What does this fold into?
Amino acid sequence: MTWHRAAALEDLENRHVVGIEIGETPVAIYRLKDGYFATHNICTHQHALMSDGYVEDGCVECPLHQAIFDIRSGEALEGPAREALKTYPVKIENGAIFVDLATA
Ligand code: FES
It folds into this structure.
């Protein structure tokens, strides 16, 4: 595993999702009731940032055409997107969120 520091916990203190780049990979980091999760930040339908989407009940709604994805699994629950979002392992250490892109 190759862990990359993605954000500070405080970056998500007042919001449910932030978008960052790790190298050239756009990543969305989410804060849910039971922890932190990460997915690729580009919708699998067209080009929209999931970090601009609406987060509710463990799902994120794409801001462009309202596809809904399960944040934990990446599964596309409602179209028009059909393909799942890539998900990435997350760990918390020393007040920071780390993401592993390699084992996705
Ligand atoms: S770009 Fe996300 S649903 Fe179309």
